[in-house]
Amino acid sequence: MSRRCGRLAVFSARSAVIYFDNAATSLLKPPTVGQAVLKAMETFGGAARGGHPAALNASRCLFQARKAVAELLGSAPERTVFTSNATESLNIAIGGLLQAEDHVITTALEHNSVLRPLYRLRAKGMGLSIIPADSEGNLDYNRFRQSLRPNTKAVVCTHASNVTGTLVDLECIASFCKEHQLLLLVDASQTAGVFPLHADELGIDVLCFTGHKALLGPQGTGGLCLRSGLSIPALKVGGSGIHSFSETHPSELPEALEAGTPNAHGIAGLLAGVEFIKKTGQETIRQRELALCRQFVEGVQAIAGVHVYGDQKRPYAPIVLLNVDGWDSGEVGDLLAHQYGICVRAGAHCAPLIHMALGTQERGAVRFSFSFLNTEAEIQAGIAALVEIAGGKR
Do the Cβ atoms of 18 and 342 come closer than 8 Å? Predict the structure, then answer.
């Protein structure tokens, strides 16, 4: 067997892989997450679809998960809606609250989960202003006020770039929205679970999150938290477990936005992930991840031929974007995976405007993103691998 095939073969072994792709999805989970999913698969019926023990098991789990997520994100359980991921949440919020006659402000840091729903509305006539990012990925917050129009209805923005990790000043943007009576829709995909968020206190109208990243849940889980009094038309209608003889879908939350059988198995795992975060402490998790990130940045910045993107002097999520001189980003990603057993993401990262600001739209870039469950030894292994790659001959 070739070395390449041998490396691929060990990817199924948890201990053999160094996983630095947590901004895409967290691979290393607390054991309780998988245990909760398995238990749910063995004991759950349909939530709100019966009064027997199996159905009640699922219903109770959803209620507990709603309470736990709402507490973590600063919302209320009845206004916390489960979806399949942040993309679905953003489509529900953007498609439900914005119209062709509106004008919206967004930023160049956004993921396509924000941009594409906005572009689709722009094609129907909606006005769209995009706050540019500089070559280090920073925003000029004065541009928000300059972008205001009489029909501006909302700001839609990420909390942290999935490319550079740059944190957006949500307090500044929330204050701007409050001053001008604008809706604020926030994509918290990279921060929910690690950075403190209090949707109600900040004045966020819709906070969208995914379960499979820093919340440590399974893929296929996510949701949104709505401001009190805010109503969003349903993206989907159908079964809800209540009001079965009504021709219209229930209007009360959370059922209004949760048509169909929920992913109770995945939500059981999400609940276990949130419980791990609460038990460990967000501050403990965040400080460890940022310490690992600083250790990595200090190590790779000392390597000749390695270029690190982004402003390391500004607050950021535990993400590092880099390139190696003389190498395509995809080649570096392949080498790391197949010769060193290190999982990263290389190329473009579903956020085209920030790549254009950084000048990496043609070459792409290599993204390292860290987890509380990574180790200092793994960080050193990643640095050592880049030393060899940067010093190697083509």
Answer: yes
Q: Is the dihedral of CA 371, 368, 308, 378 positive or negative?
A: positive
Determine the residue type at 287.
Q
Residues in the chain: 394
Q: The pTM is what? A: 0.93
Joined together, the tokens standing for residue 28 give 């290393």
- Give the span between the Cα atoms of 266 and 270, in whole angstroms: 6
DSSP string, 55-116: HHHHHHHHHHHHHHHHHHHTS-GGGEEEESSHHHHHHHHHHHH--TT-EEEEETT--HHHHH
Report how far residue 324's alpha carbon sits from residue 329's, in angstroms, rounded to the nearest whole number.
7
What is the per-residue pLDDT for 238? Answer: 72
**Structural tokens at position 236:** 């989907």
DSSP 133: B
Whole-angstrom distance, CA of residue 380 vs CA of residue 377: 5
Report yes or no: 199 and 227 within 8 Å, Cβ to Cβ: yes
Give residue-wise pLDDT tens across range 263-292. 999 999 999 999 999 999 999 999 999 999
In the chain the first and final C-alpha atoms are separated, in Å, by: 24
User: What dihedral angle (degrees, nearest 10) is formed by the CA atoms of 321, 287, 171, 85?
Assistant: 60
| Pair of tokens at residue 223 | 């949701």
